[in-house]
Amino acid sequence: MTAKECIVGRRSIRQFTEQAVSPEVLEDIIATASYAPSWKNTQITRYTAVTGAAKEKLSKLTSIFPGNSSRMESAPMVVAVSVVKGRSGYERDGSFSTVKEDGWQMFDAGVASEAFCLAAYEKGLGTVILGLFDVAEATALLEIPDTQELVALICIGYPAESPAAPKRKTVSELLTYKE
Asked: 3-161 has which fold?
């Protein structure tokens, strides 16, 4: 599979089979995603695999958007994505390197999350990234350390659907040239 085939073919999957994701497959996906670029190679993204009773409890914390509960219940696993705070966008003395301040850590988390999803797709798995959930309660439930910030939840499993690609904007809508 080429990079283009992977990017163009990947879809957000919202219905999964019951087949479990093995630790070996998950670890291979994480190893691949670890190559995602990050601010000054800080590699701040962390992953927590959630299954069983913890996943059931976590799915109840998505009432902000009820559709997310059914997605999480359908998935055999949810991966919580967190970032190490105070590293991305900072200098060693603690000052900001960029006017984006600590916002750069969200960029790093997004790049790493997409790398995770593409690596999963290459392995025949489906994913959907969720951002609407009770962050404080999920952080407590998953025992995310104070040194990290919970950013997103990724449902992962073997797809039970093959959704069509949504309409895309044209290149002329997306691209501007300046000389």
From this structure: NADH Oxidase (3.40.109)
Cα dihedral 69, 102, 114, 27, rounded to 10, equals -80
DSSP 118-168: HHHHHTT-EEEEE--S-HHHHHHHTT--TTEEEEEEEEEE-BS--PPPPP-
- Integer CA distances (angstroms), 36 to 5, 27, 29, 126, in order: 18, 15, 12, 19
Tokens 């497959």 -> residue: 25
Beta bridge partners of 14: none
| 7-35 confidence digits (pLDDT tens) | 999 999 999 999 999 999 999 999 999 99
Helix axes 66-74, 52-59, angle to 10 degrees: 170
Where are the chain's structural domains?
3-161
- Whole-model pTM: value is 0.92
